[in-house]
């Protein structure tokens, strides 16, 4: 499972970063995920208030 980020929907609140158990998410100009670090646990997907994340 690969984490998909909808950059247009993401408002850069940072909530997903604070819940990721693997520190796989990074917020600079946009939110990015280190695919080799992300385990696909789905915690960030569940917590995002604007449904900008999905697993596919
Ligand atoms: S929780 Fe959602 S809106 Fe907030 S930074 Fe993460 S992906 Fe973007
Ligand atoms: S799916 Fe899990 S490991 Fe991957 S970025 Fe989201 S919270 Fe982190």
What count of structural domains?
Answer: 1
Largest sheet: 2 strands, antiparallel
Ligands bound to this protein structure: iron/sulfur cluster
Rounded mean pLDDT score: 97
Global outline? globular
Report the C-alpha radius of gyration, rounded: 10 Å
Report on this structure.
The chain has 56 residues and is an alpha+beta fold. The protein has two helices and four strands; from the N terminus they run E-H-E-E-H-E. A two-stranded antiparallel sheet has the order 1-4. Strands 2-3 form a two-stranded antiparallel sheet. The longest helix is centred in the N-terminal third of the chain and has 5 residues, at 15-19. The mean pLDDT is 97. The structure holds iron/sulfur cluster (2 copies).
Topology:
Blueprint: E1 3-5, H1 15-19, E2 25-27, E3 31-33, H2 43-47, E4 53-55
Antiparallel strand pairs: 1-4, 2-3
The protein binds iron/sulfur cluster (2 copies).
Keywords, please?
alpha+beta; Alpha-Beta Plaits; two-stranded antiparallel ribbon; two-stranded antiparallel sheet; 2 helices; 21% strand; binds iron/sulfur cluster
Briefly characterize the structure:
The protein is α+β, with helices and mostly antiparallel strands and about 55 residues long. The protein has helices at about 15-20, 45, and strands at about 5, 25, 30-35, 55.
């Amino acid at each position: 499972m690969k984490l998909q980020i909808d950059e247009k929907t993401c408002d850069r609140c940072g909530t997903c970063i604070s819940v990721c158990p693997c520190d796989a998410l990074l917020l600079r100009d946009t939110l990015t995920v280190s695919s080799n670090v992300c385990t696909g646990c789905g915690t960030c997907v569940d917590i995002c208030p604007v449904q900008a994340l999905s697993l596919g």
